[in-house]
Amino acid sequence: MMKNLFKLISQIVFSKSLQPLFWLIGAIIIIIFTVDTFIMPYYVNNGGTLVVPNVVGMKEETAKHILDSLHFEPRRGEIRQDNAYPIGYVILQNPASEQIVKNGRRIYLTISGGEQDAIVPSLRGRSIRDAKFALDRAGLRQGAIQYQVSTELPEGTIISQDIIAGNKMKHNSYVSVVVSAGESIDSI
Fold first, then answer.
1. Surface-to-core class of residue 143, CB atoms within 10 Å of its CB (0-12 exposed, 13-18 middle, 19+ buried)
2. What does the pLDDT average to over 178-182?
3. Handedness of CA 35, 36, 37, 43 (dihedral sign)
4. Are 104 and 73 in contact (CB under 8 A)?
5. What is the DSSP letter of 52?
6. Per-residue confidence at 60, pLDDT binned at 50, 70, 90?
7. Is the pLDDT of residue 11 over 80?
8. CATH topology of domain 49-112
9. pTM (2 decimals)?
10. Of 3-17, 91-105, 124-138, which range is least confident?
11. For the chain, does the N or the C end have fewer beta carbons within 10 angstroms?
12. The listed CATH number (3.30.930.10, 3.30.200.20, 1.10.1040.10, 3.30.10.20) that belongs to domain 118-187
């Protein structure tokens, strides 16, 4: 049985009709080996390599000037809100600094769009404690608290706020509130 199988395989391999296919496969293997061993290393290493400088924290124009002078191709990437850097400063670069890359490589710069504004939450009908948590989550602070007699809302509930809900403010800004003192101011 094994002899028959071996005989069948040898007939297929040494068949005159399949010899061009085997020559083609052999030629492809030799071409791939040559390209991988000789041509690609020459192409990759040709032109020299450079170390990418750190341009994070610089103004966009300054960073581009530095990269241009070192024969890189600076490209503006996305603009991202960032509380740590002012508008127009580089907050991220790709490839990162200290990477070894080819001369002329593109360096993508992510630019700060400035501090992200906080959106004022609606505080009406909430307790002072709940309002403080909502303001903290939004990145805001609780401002002055005034008390006012109200028959509409129970004591300790916020009646109104000085900044309309949905408005945008800088982080850590203060939002003052008016709180219900109940039906009589004496209940405080």
1. middle
2. 93
3. positive
4. yes
5. P
6. very high
7. no
8. Trypsin Inhibitor V; Chain A (3.30.10)
9. 0.51
10. 3-17
11. N
12. 3.30.10.20
Residue 160 tokens, joined: 């109104």
Identify the sign of the CA torsion 134, 138, 139, 143.
negative
For 172, list phi and psi in degrees, rounded to 5.
Answer: 70, 15
Sign of the torsion formed by the C-alpha atoms of 148, 149, 152 and 158: positive
Which amino acid is it at 72? F
| Cβ-Cβ contacts under 8 Å for 138 (sequence gap 6 or more) | 118, 119, 120, 121
Distance CA 14, CA 165 (A): 84
Contacts (Cβ under 8 Å, ≥6 apart) of 94: 77, 107, 108, 110
Residue whose token pair is 């127009």:
88
Q: Which residues pair with 59 in a beta bridge?
A: 89
pLDDT per position as a tens digit, 62-82: 999 999 999 999 999 999 988
Q: Give ranges for CATH 3.30.10.20 in the chain.
A: 49-112, 118-187
